[in-house]
Design brief:
The complex is a heterodimer. Helix content of chain A is 28%, strand content 22%. Chain A is α/β, with parallel strands linked by helices. Chain A has one domain (9-195, 227-391): TIM Barrel (Alpha-Beta Barrel). In chain A, strand 8 (203-207) and strand 9 form a beta hairpin. The longest helix of chain A is centred in the middle third of the chain and has 18 residues, at 136-153. Chain B is of the alpha/beta class. Chain B has a single domain (5-200, 230-381), classed as TIM Barrel (Alpha-Beta Barrel). In chain B, the strands form 4 sheets. In chain B, strands 1, 2, 3, 4, 5, 6, 7, 10, 11, 12 and 13 form an 11-stranded mixed beta sheet that branches. Chain B starts with 8 loop residues before the first strand and ends in a 6-residue tail after the last strand. Classes of the chains: A alpha/beta, B alpha/beta. Chains A and B meet through helix 7 of A and helix 7, helix 9 and strand 18 of B.
Amino acid sequence: MSVPKEALYRFPWSKTDNPGAWIEVTDECDLHCPGCYRHRLEGHRPLDELKRDVLTLRRTLNCERIAIAGGEPLLYPRIVEVVDFIARQGMKPMILTNGERLTPELTSRLKKAGLKLVLFHVDSSQQRPGWENKTEAEMNGLRQKFADLLWEIGGLQCGFNITVFPPTLSSIPDIISWARANIHKVQHVSLISFRSVLLHDDWTYEVNGRPIDARKFQCATAHPEDLAVSTEKMAEVISGRFPDMRPCAYLGGTTSPETCKFLIFLVLGTQNRIYGSLGPKTAELVQVFYHLAKGHYCSFQDSPAPGMKVFLLALADRHVRKLWSRFWRAFARNPGAALKKIYVQCINLQQPNEILNGKINLCDGCLNMMLHRGQLIHSCQLDEYRLFGAPIVPRKRGKEEESPPGRQP
Amino acid sequence: MDLDRNELYRFPWSKTDNPGSWVEVTDDCDLTCEGCYRHRLQGHRPLEAVKEDILANQRMTRCDSMAIAGGEPLIYPQIIEVVDFMARRGIKPVILTNGEKLTPDLATALKKAGLAKFHFHVDSGQERPAWKGKNEVDINGLRQHFADLVWELGGVQCGFNVTVYRQTLPYLPGIVEWCRANIHKVQHISLIALRLIPIRDDTDYWVNGRKLDISSYQTRRPSPEEISITTEEMFGLLQEHFPDFHACAYLSGTSAPHTHKYLITTYVGSRRKIYGVLGAKSMEAVQIFYHLAKNRYCAFIKNPAAGKKIFALSVFDQEIRRAFGNFVRSSLRNPARLLDRIYVQSIHLQQPNEIIDGQVNLCDGCANMMHYRGRMIHSCRLDEYRMFGGEIIPAWHGGDEP
């Protein structure tokens, strides 16, 4: 990767002090995305149970934002009540949706209930009715539609989730380029590498010491090359096309700490011009002073438009110093354009649950922990619990993962 | 004992941004402690291999301090070179020793090489020749001997490790009482609950897909009471004896986040009187400002004689405000106390590696991770790797649920 990890800030998040948490209201959905790892087993979950989970999550994690996921949360009949409940507890509700059911009326009701952020899952693999066989660049048309819908209503942050497959890796710049042009409308872009369970003669999977049939996972693949996208590769593609973009902070892996499971870029700019990326010290200052003041870490800022005061960070962050001088050059050329509102856009690269060195490597400090039967689990492992009762353990057939040294007498 | 997490700071430490790390120079030792989980397999390690591990540890963890452990590091012939190598790279070297081989001359040589701290493992479960049949409070005599030795030396910090057994648990207040009286000499004490694998007939143990004969790792079958000591239990006991014993920060468990694997109380006082403790906000401020300035978290502050400026933290920390109040009242009664030096002292409660609900529960954010053959592992699991090539995984076969 182009940016050495030593130069990045490791988020201070942990299992018991984490800005984010996750609930799932239903496992039903009106699309069939190829990267989906959620199975239709239970349908809608009872509202009381969800409320109990929200309260337990806040107590356990000290979280400030709750992702409402699924399945498709907008299919859940009492979705407005869920949003309202979370907001009343003083937390930021965020919905992960494919957007198919989102009307301006529903959006207004959700906003009134306290919704802060809508994260749309939109990518070319979804084969949506009317959007079949499109490229990622063409899918920007649908993204624009959703971004405009929220922009019209106002007061809601807008983000996109994109599953990245090896064939779509090279089209990431098309997506980023669109997002940069929409920095005033789009606050978050998550590029998530395709995750799967590999069906291979060399690998078996066990739960509690018993072998399981991995074909039960709908996303299972027999092609190792499907799993070739990593955050490092995505970062390379982005920095290759946009030299002004560099990551500032990350989370490592649980079993392979040297990996970047979650890598974040904070982009600063106006509607007319992108100045560049904020540095690691900015990410650090935001997290630690937010925590000193509020007692919890920051998942996302209330306002995506920090204004000119963002340049004060130049005192501590040399990357902001560069942006400051770019701002003045832009000001000299066209003062009117330079004085337009300044926005921050967050691009994050994620590599979920993977098998590395014979072990399951999860995000250490994961933002999307959830409760399953009272137990705190990584939400990406939920269906391992629902299908088999516990997380799966991979085992390479015939070979030792690592040969032990001979024990001396 | 119910601890309120809202009043505690969760250290911001992680696997790749951590103030501490660990290197072992030898697995030889001149004592045979009851709770020891290190096996004699390899003897002294080559100096080059130790140096490589030190560099890998620093690269992976950004550590502020590194523990030189074993075995008994003081019987490692090139121990001075190890300390020197570390200190030159800006890491604070800490030696974990039983102290048997420590002479004033060796201590001076280690200090010259850049040693930051001695950590003496001293408790009644060690079968030391001259201290047989003594209880934990008697053994404060040996602790005093080491504390005095380091105090004479000057410029090097002094800490103690104590393994806590069910039968020695009642003596904990006696140990802490001694520490409080020696706040000028003793910067640190770790009270570590005994760890052993609970060997049960309804459980199999697996390593890399093979069933393991667990007796090849551990022969003793501990009773459940022996290995059920928790940090919460130790904390409760200490708080009963010392009402001012308030924790400020913790690390939780990897698989059981509700547990406190590592719980810290930091006393503030002079050699004549303990005034109070640091609160969560002070510990948070220390960690984050140190990190903002140095790009690494703080393992321990260089000068334990923090001085009266520490009371400035009263601005946002209630606990320190209370300590400051005590200091002022005490000084009004006896103005000579105004001249006393103010020290800080950390009491760590630790609960290593244990099995909860069928899963191995480790310290999340462990400050004792070590480099082993290209990967970072929890040092408490080193022998699982050395002996079997991987981690021991328990699996119940008695029923569906443990």
